[in-house]
Design a protein that fits this description.
- Helix content is about 80%, strand content about 0%.
- It is mainly α and about 210 residues long.
- It has one domain (about 5-205): Ferritin, CATH 1.20.1260.
- The protein is globular, with a radius of gyration of 17 Å.
- It binds fe (ii) ion (FE2) (2 copies).
- One fe (ii) ion binds next to helix 3.
Length: about 210
């Protein structure tokens, strides 16, 4: 059996190389952008609340902030989501889409409004927990203090999103514990596939491509 991929090892490799680092930042910008787009589309207009709208806007702002950092490190080439400006973008998108489908499948029997509300809450909850973990590992290994300062603001907002959805879930979903216990290991499996693709993309031959 192969060793589990350590995120720390990958991040150390990434931050040591400016172009790779710019590609990493743009990949996370891309994921934030997908999150922004998904939140906007996830709700029927009649149940779009101020809290959900502000969550979407903040994810959009994270996408922009990370892209600006990517451009600062890598130049104007990074002013797009062209595949070569990211690291394993397909795997990054697959992580989010698979997680979304997995959660939605749990609520398949419910009416549309309940299904979209619960899918939004669980997908957000799982992604925010993962994002906090990944951004914290990245922050701890970052040599650039200006990027650390930008990440602090982003982390604060992600932490608040997590608290907001957790509060909504624990107050409105009586099956929270069972559903969380069921979905969390599934997210872990989906994330480890993403990590495997990330490690593969950072192999010397692939990284030089
Ligand atoms: Fe975000
Ligand atoms: Fe968030």
């Amino acid at each position: 059996m192969s060793e589990p991929v350590q995120l720390e090892t990958l991040v150390m490799k990434i931050v040591a190389d400016a172009r790779l680092h710019a590609r990493w930042l743009n990949t996370f910008s891309f994921m934030e952008y997908i999150g922004f787009r998904k939140i906007v589309k996830s709700q029927l207009a009649e149940q779009m609340t101020a809290q959900i709208l502000s969550h979407a806007m903040e994810e959009g702002r994270h996408a922009l902030g990370l892209k600006k950092l990517a451009m600062k490190l890598g130049g104007s080439d990074f002013d797009s989501y062209a595949p070569e400006t990211m690291i394993c973008p397909e795997a990054a998108e697959t992580y989010i889409q698979t997680l979304d489908k997995t959660c939605e499948a749990q609520f398949a029997a419910l009416p549309d409004t309940d299904r979209s509300r619960l899918t939004y809450l669980y997908v957000t909850w799982l992604i925010e927990k993962r994002a906090l973990e990944v951004y914290n590992v990245y922050k701890a290994l970052l040599p650039q203090k200006d990027i650390v300062a930008k990440l602090e603001g982003l982390l604060m907002e992600e932490g608040r999103h997590l608290q907001d959805v957790e509060a909504a879930m624990t107050s409105k979903d009586r099956q929270f514990k069972e559903r969380a216990d069921l979905l969390q290991p599934q997210e872990e499996a989906i994330y480890s596939i993403f990590l495997g693709h990330l490690a593969e993309a950072l192999q010397p031959a692939a990284a030089a491509a």
